[in-house]
Description:
The radius of gyration is 36 Å and the shape is elongated. It is mostly beta strands. The protein has one helix spanning 2-20, and strands at 38-44, 57-59, 64-66, 79-86, 92-99, 106-107, 113-115, 120-126, 131-137, 148-155, 162-172, 175-184, 192-197, 205-206, 224-226, 229-233, 239-242, 249-250, 256-265, 274-281, 290-294, 300-305, 316-322, 325-331, 344-347, 354-355, 371-375, 378-385, 391-398, 406-407, 425-428, 434-437, 451-457.
Amino acid sequence: MKNKVTFLAVGCLVGLMSSCLGGTSDNYDVEIPKNCQISSFSLSHDSIAVLKTAKFTIDQLNGRIFNADSLPYGTEVGKVLCALEFMDTYSVGSTQMMPEATGDTIVWSAKDSADFSKPVRFVVNGFEGVSKTYIAQVNIHQVNPDSMAWTLHAGQITGLAVKEQATVVHKYNGVESYFMYVQTAEAGSPYRLYRSAVGDAQHWSPLPALSGLPSSRLRLKQLTAYEGSLYLPSESGTVYRSADGLAWEAISTDKYAVHYIIGAVKAGSRQASALAAVVRPAVSNTNELQFASMNKEGVWQAGEEVPDDFPLTGFGSANYSAMYYEYLMIAGGRDRRGQLQNSSWSTSDGRTWALLTGRQSNYFSKREGVLLTAYDDKLWLIGGIDGQGTASKEIYHSLDKGVSWTLTDAPIVLPEAYLARGFASVLVDKDRYLLIFGGRKSGTATEEADEVWRGRVNRLGF
Length: 462
């Protein structure tokens, strides 16, 4: 009797527990997760160090996995290890990989390598037929970042036989523009002006006739932009100025005849701006030449006497900064004796100049009409025409502000289609392209090229 009572009590207790827990297993459902998304993706290989820092983006909507920041040019990604993480590990039954490079279908494992030289398809399989497909691709730069890509950007700008041109940046109706001044080969033809918006340089239009300029004997290659105006010297010692680039007037130069304008020094934190020139005293019976500068108020101040070997024509000019100062540099050209030079000079005020290269140096051959510019954190010297009248397309770099120069080779070269030349204008635009305008293709050429070339170091466009 005692045993029967015990069994009855146990039975009641079991029944009560079953009731409290909601009955038997037939009375509730188990929800199986269905999230098969990849949440993390990375690649690794002991011999490919850049993979350690490669960041991959997972586009869940379009099923793409890629590195937005491409790996360096020349990186070879073959068989590498692939690590995956999932939104919900319990949702994933298996993951298949289909590398395009091998055509295989394999089961993903973090311990096995796979070929990622071409896109790889991933199929993540979950429960109840749920799956998610991804295409993983490793992006690698396809061009050498340190090479240059050049194109003929514009041809037949004026459609005329151009004897000489000079191009500067100036505002037209408030818009930053390229101003190309042209003297045609037609005898007695006046100087003309063509304009294109900065950043374009392909579409050019003629502007209204110029006024206030003589029809010849201007030193057009010494056209200089300074403090919102343009300045242009003449062979007679007169300087012309224009605020809008169209209407010109001769300006007073105090007691000096300004025979050459060398360029402009920008204003810096420790110095004022200056228009640099070479002058001769208006009342003088000698051929003495002096350096001089004009400030933005139009006041001239003479400086040191000009050395015999200082270039007065045919030089290239460029601006650069160093040690909190702004400088103007020139290179190449002919001195007052008509002799070609292969030197470079600089100034911070226009009145005192320093010879940067030694007088016996021979970094580049003696030449005139070189293109000089600051670009890609160095100074560039391009082309020019030597004493035999032969044009060059060589490119030299200076990493020490013009003290020494090194001839570049591949991949920094001008293309075969670009003909060697000198006396072109060179500018750098806001997208870090080098623009080369015009230029003579030999010392005996009577016309300049009516075209624009454009080039950029590839990594500056990444």
